[in-house]
Fold this sequence. Notes:
Elements: H1 2-21, H2 44-60, E1 68-76, E2 79-80, E3 96-102, E4 107-114, E5 120-129, E6 132-141, H3 150-157, H4 173-185, E7 196-204, E8 207-208, E9 230-238, E10 243-250, E11 257-265, E12 268-275
Amino acid sequence: MMKKAMFTVLLACAAAPVLAQQGGAAGPPPSPYAPLQDHPSCTRDELKRLTAAYVEAQGKGSLAALPMDPKAHYLENGKDVDAGAGMWAKPLQVAHAMSFHDDKRCKTFTEVIVTGPVPYVIGTRLYAHAGKIIRVDSLVTKQGHWLFNANSYLKYTTKEDWSPLFKYQLTEPKEMIRGANAYLDGFADKFTDIPWGTPCARLEGGAYTNVKGDPHASCEVGLPAGVLYITHRDYVIDEELGVINVFCRFGGRAESPDSHSFRYIDGKIRQVHTLTPIPGPQANDDGGMIRGAADPNAPRPAGGGANGPRT
Length: 311
């Protein structure tokens, strides 16, 4: 009886922060947005319909046709925005789009490439529950952002294979999370065990590490020197495609949002895509560098270095 009473007290204490967040007497006022769900409800087919509708909506510049929750939360580059103020409200000529679907977490991630008249590469998350979209979270990269080049991003994305895998090629979700975290932890701890495969290529904003199509290309070229903590990690896992997408913050700063997508085959990382809407050097149409920045295809010491892409 005593143990049961103590357990009840511990549960009440654990729930207190949650109740406070929901507007308890000692907490802040209730959020105006639809709450995120710890066990959301959806199907993979529903998520596929939502991403198809989102891509079509981006072309029209309106989310009106999507099943939006009346209290849906809209974010762009890590900041709250009004429903009509995000890039999704601007009609864009979509040159290419591909989506990943997580029917456990009821989240999706869609890459949208726009090469003109004004180029963008956009990464958009949709959070779904009970047939409604409760959150839209976009990272919008454009000229001036880290290693940006939409032409190069389109060129190499369409050359890569992101098709469904055979069952024997699939990777356990927990291992996908472990590998992605090992990579992101590597910015602070240079001794993590990252499951790189061969061949492997990284596409960062537009800079590409395997422009020659080398079948023996490696992504194990080291990470930048120094200690940088990557925080606020949030996952989308598409088990059928072997992809995990991570939204995160570099240095824990709200003004430094980032997206990393990792493609696994046979338990190893074979492709990496990143989008980082912060100022930085630019890539050229061939996936190299301009403005005198370091060439991402040049080899670097195993211990990393200050030059070259962050990925």
